[in-house]
Write a structure and sequence with these properties.
Blueprint: E1 7-12, H1 18-30, E2 34-39, E3 45-47, E4 53-55, E5 58-59, E6 70-73, H2 78-82, H3 86-97, E7 101-105, H4 109-115, E8 122-123, H5 130-135, E9 139-140, E10 145-148, E11 151-154, H6 160-172
Parallel strand pairs: 1-2, 1-6, 2-5, 6-7, 7-11, 8-9
Antiparallel strand pairs: 3-4, 10-11
Helix pairs in contact: 3-4
Length: 174
């Protein structure tokens, strides 16, 4: 249980990409981390792109970056909704500024853009939003996983098998 004592927030909103939420959820729990589902506050649970609901443990405005070791932003179309909530952006920005894990995959780059954490960083994302990431000041890299300090990004669900080991290694302090 390499992540015993770690607490990780996974953001959720309507139309999240199933695998990009559930794969990290279970992998981190298997590694011993406590995982909390953090919603925007618009509902108590959200359906995925394929209709699978996720129940919210806490609203973004009711959890502090001091209470977590990192935040994971899954993709799908949920990030376009998440980025509209100041509490979500504050949680991501504060975690980032404090050197805590901030991990995003696919369309989750939209949240990073709105949280203003990409300037001067290397990052990847789904190609459909690469211009947004570049315009936010990042150097876009078309690789399965990009680790730039505490920022860990990936492109699509196909990259999950390299994204999660990078996340776990960061949390283990490697």
């Amino acid at each position: 249980m390499s992540l015993q004592g770690k607490r990780i927030a996974i953001l959720a909103e309507e139309i999240y990409e199933d695998m990009e939420l559930w794969y990290p959820y279970y992998r981190l729990k298997e590694a011993g981390a406590e995982v909390v589902i953090v919603g925007t506050g618009s509902a108590n649970q959200y359906p995925s792109k394929h209709g699978i609901p996720v129940k919210v443990d806490v609203e973004a405005g009711k959890i502090s970056a001091d209470e977590i070791d990192g935040v994971i932003v899954p993709g799908g179309f949920a990030p376009d909704r998440m980025r509209r909530y100041p509490a979500v952006l504050e949680l991501v920005k504060t975690a980032f500024d404090r050197g805590k894990l901030v991990a995003a995959i696919c369309h989750a780059g939209w949240v990073l853009v709105s949280a203003k954490v990409l300037n001067g960083r290397r990052a990847t994302c789904v190609s459909a939003i690469k211009d947004d990431v570049i315009n936010a000041g990042a150097t876009y890299v078309d690789e399965p996983v990009v680790v730039d300090g505490n920022l860990i990004t990936s492109r699509t669900p196909a990259d999950l098998p390299v994204w999660l080991p990078a996340i776990i290694s960061f949390l283990e302090g490697k």
